[in-house]
């Protein structure tokens, strides 16, 4: 009797347990298979961990000619001759460190590229200590020579001062130091002796943000694909800052036609009315070739602009200057949009829209400037390749 009841009870228990096991297995299957997938080669996050900065031989089968950010090369110990270059003041130490922290976390902790900090005043020991302490790459600190950060002999300081009064309602229009900065970034940073040993640079500013874990070495990518200029954000310049930059550039082109590339990018900057359409790459982010800036073409162009005086008699920015040089001297295939680099410099974002790229990021794709009419990036992408 007792055993009969127990037998019935245990049968019922076994039945319920069986149903529970089946139900739980059914419920958990998606999670189980997902965590299994996470261990497979298909998941790029795991791929990242398989190469924690150690591997030393490049997979020979990687084909750089078919590179896309969706198909990044495997990690390798190879490095380009490259550095970060940062023009910064001592006072910007803390916003600088916030940016360095992000640059290290998103990219450089695996690559350890060096940093070159430049300043028109001596860096303090405090600045050096607290920037070296947060970076994995070697750091060096350069003082800008006086002649790279002052009025050249042919510039009238009185006329420059009058300009700053006249332009006081334009952004940075009344600033003298901003003009030295723009001239320096246009014509001199790549000639600083600390830059001599490098072939590629990544320009960084204090207070910018990086949102995406980079899946490859952008310097090596530039080198392998023979790219000369890389950008994240493009937009339209304030016309009032560059009233005569376009005509000065056209005059230069007329005088030195042999320096202009055959299949150039002038179509990107030439407006339908033949005036400058104001499109430019935002130069606070650049990954680019130093030998390109050191070339005869670029140097002649810079000297021509410098003699014309617009850095001081107007407020020419290094962004339109670099961009017009890109347009004259490079082919479309030599210029690269880093769509996969999530980036913010107030007030604009670049943020990848595809899930395949955005999953490495923490930025909202909807914020990306390239989706708006304020960007020139789609016009750039629409240009035909030269070959
Ligand atoms: N050492 C030094 N660096 C400067 C000076 N002025 C600007 N910079 C740096 O030059 C770069 C560009 O200057 P910003 O003030 O950021 O100019 P911007 O990006 O056009 O404008 P905002 O970022 O909107 O202010 C940044 O890396 C600054 O740190 C200066 O007088 N001395
Ligand atoms: C850093 O500098 C030291 C000393 O100059 C040098 O030996 C080393 O190779 C450098 N490291 C990197 C990663 O460039
Ligand atoms: C701009 O385009 C016009 C035709 O629309 C052409 O005549 C002119 O030469 C171009 N200017 C430059 C600088 O490329
Ligand atoms: Mg800035």
TrEMBL record:
Name used for this protein in its record: Glycolipid 2-alpha-mannosyltransferase-domain-containing protein
One of the GO BP terms on file: protein O-linked glycosylation
Stated family: Belongs to the glycosyltransferase 15 family.
Top-level taxon of the source organism: Eukaryota
InterPro entries: Glyco_trans_15, Nucleotide-diphossugar_trans
This protein's record includes keyword Zinc-finger: no
GO cellular component assignments: Golgi apparatus; membrane
Pfam families: Glyco_transf_15
Keyword Membrane found: yes
A GO MF term: alpha-1,2-mannosyltransferase activity
Assigned keywords, A-Z: Glycosyltransferase, Membrane, Transferase, Transmembrane, Transmembrane helix
Transmembrane segments: 9-28
């Amino acid at each position: 009797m007792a055993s009969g009841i127990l037998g019935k009870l245990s049968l019922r228990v076994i039945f319920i347990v069986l149903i529970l096991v089946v139900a739980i297995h059914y419920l958990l299957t998606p999670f189980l298979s997902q965590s299994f997938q996470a261990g497979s080669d298909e998941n790029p996050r795991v791929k990242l961990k398989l190469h924690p900065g150690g591997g030393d031989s490049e997979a020979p089968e990687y084909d750089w000619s078919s590179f896309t950010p969706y198909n990044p090369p495997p990690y390798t110990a190879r490095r380009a001759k490259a550095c970060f270059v940062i023009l910064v003041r001592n006072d910007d130490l803390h916003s600088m460190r916030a940016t360095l922290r992000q640059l290290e976390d998103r990219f450089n902790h695996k690559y350890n590229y060096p940093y070159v900090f430049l300043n028109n005043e001596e860096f303090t020991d405090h600045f050096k200590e607290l920037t070296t302490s947060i970076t994995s790459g070697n750091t060096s600190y350069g003082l800008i020579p006086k002649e790279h950060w002052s009025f050249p002999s042919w510039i009238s300081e009185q006329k420059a001062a009058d300009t700053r009064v006249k332009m006081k309602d334009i952004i940075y229009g009344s600033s003298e130091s901003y003009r030295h900065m723009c001239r320096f970034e246009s014509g001199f940073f790549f000639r600083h002796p600390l830059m001599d040993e490098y072939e590629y640079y990544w320009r960084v500013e204090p207070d910018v943000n990086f949102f995406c874990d980079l899946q490859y070495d952008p310097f090596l990518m530039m080198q392998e694909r023979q790219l000369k200029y890389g950008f994240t954000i493009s937009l339209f310049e304030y016309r009032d800052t560059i009233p005569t930059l376009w005509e000065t550039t056209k005059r230069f082109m007329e005088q030195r036609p042999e320096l202009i590339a055959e299949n150039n990018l002038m179509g990107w900057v030439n407006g339908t009315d033949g005036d400058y359409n104001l499109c430019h790459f935002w130069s606070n982010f650049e990954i680019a070739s130093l030998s390109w800036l050191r070339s005869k073409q670029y140097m002649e162009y810079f000297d021509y602009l410098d003699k014309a005086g617009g850095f001081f008699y107007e407020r020419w920015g290094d962004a339109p200057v670099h961009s017009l040089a890109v347009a004259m001297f490079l082919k479309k295939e030599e210029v690269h949009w880093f769509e996969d680099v999530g980036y913010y410099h107030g007030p604009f974002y670049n943020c990848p829209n595809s899930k395949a790229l955005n999953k490495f990021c923490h930025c909202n794709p909807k914020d990306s400037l390239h989706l708006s009419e304020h960007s020139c990036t789609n016009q750039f992408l629409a240009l035909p390749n030269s070959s």
